[in-house]
Amino acid sequence: MIRDEIRALAAKALETAQAAGALPAFAAPEVKLEHPARIEHGDFSANLPLRVQGLARMKAIEVAEVLRAHVGAHPAVTEVRVAPPGFLNFYLDARWLASQTEGIIAAGPAYASNNIGVGKKLQLEYVSANPTGPVHVGNGRGAAIGSTLALVLAAAGYEVQQEYYINDAGTQIAVFTRTLYARYQQLFGREVNIPENGYPGAYMVEIAQTIKDEAGDRYLRTVGEEPDSALGDEGIRRMVDQIREDLGMLRVQYDRWYNERSLYAENAAYPAAMQILRANGQVVERDGATWFASSQLGESKDNVLIRSDGQPTYFASDVAYHYDKFVARGFDRVIDIWGADHQGHVSRVKAAVTAVGADGDNLDVLLYQLVTLKRGAEVVPLSKRAGEIVTLRDVVTEVGADAARFFFLTPSANSTMEFDLELAKQQSDENPVYYVQYAHARIASILARAAEVGASSTGADTALLVHEAEQTLLRRLLLLPEVVETVAETLEVQHLPAYASGLAQAFHAFYTQCRVITDDAALTSARLRLLEATQIVLARTLSLMGIAAPESM
Questions:
Q1: Same structural domain, 291 and 274
Q2: Residue 448: what pLDDT?
């Protein structure tokens, strides 16, 4: 990336100035660059003089002048200026900028890939909603974030595995089974109520009806008897199939669906993890229960692993599951994406990872906030208690996968979001995903028209791309590698839709100001070349978000 080359240029200037005696010797800090808000302040700005003025015993503006004098030549840099109170501003050469179209076109769909994660196995687990009901719109936000991160991290060189953890053990499964059995009995005319704290949604009736249609009265027992566990298993299987299908509508596909029950098999993760904790003296027996002595690892309190009735807790499952991820399967890094209501759970899971022989610092937990659905100014009510939840399927069916993904990704994960269903369906510039996709479709239309009239980019002289709108678009094209690296390092996916919108804006401005197919064959050829590069970058950006790049709209 040119950013890294300029960073190295500034670092070398400091080294050269010190060697020449123009600056005293001191340890050089890392050079940090920013993009100035206004182009007249340069393409890149380094605050290095401000950071070393104390070490140099000089004013920052004086340090900046010394550094400017020692910046070496670089084909991409046309000028270096000093700006008060002590910035070093770098300006990119117009001809060099224009020439970068060839590198973008040569890279094609792989443009902006990097090798940050080469040689590292990374597991990404997200959504993992209990299979006791359909995935709701809030789960959709985690799904869009997780699947986009998988695409970006793969582009950053990681070997990525996406996983869905099926919570098919524990109390909620027992409640699900009793609810399903109540609905199943009702279909045979029995007057029974669903259990207290059961699942009242209509989907339970639908599952029961499907099972009755296929299995008849196979699962019917004498009145008052507990349900057959096989009925619950059949219901969970069908529920997981629906979840898989619903997430598929959002273009979310997993490499593995992992069953919680498998943790408790003989010689599986749960007994292995418990054995390690006991061997390390990190398990204590107290009040009839078994506790993880997490206070020994800096936690404020210990946490129950096994209840007094002998049943493992959800936390015990998490300990075993993360043992399986890090130790048994050998992932170098694990990313869990949870709803914000799990925030208090993060530190104790990290402590448990360390306790079972891995490194808790290699576990990243990304939390995302709630989603509010709106239709314009009107809030769409969500009533989970009454079973009238708004499902992910509802939203994707109404607005489409592209709009749903773009809208879910746009806000920062740690901020609540408002999803405007009406805006997501608009075919206008006000709808951000339409605005971006239309840019790609418009380019496809222009290129098709060029082919019809015999215009071509073959042998294009890109040095002709000197118009302000052309240069602005070129600068935008070169930003994608930085964006991909930023997302891979920070796990902040909102940078992608923001970049996409900015790139689309730069293209539409170019389209308004610069006619592509003209009587000037050389200029037409150069602009077609620019469009080909822009189309590649737009498609790449959309693909990293799991969004289609349409040829027509």
A1: yes
A2: 97
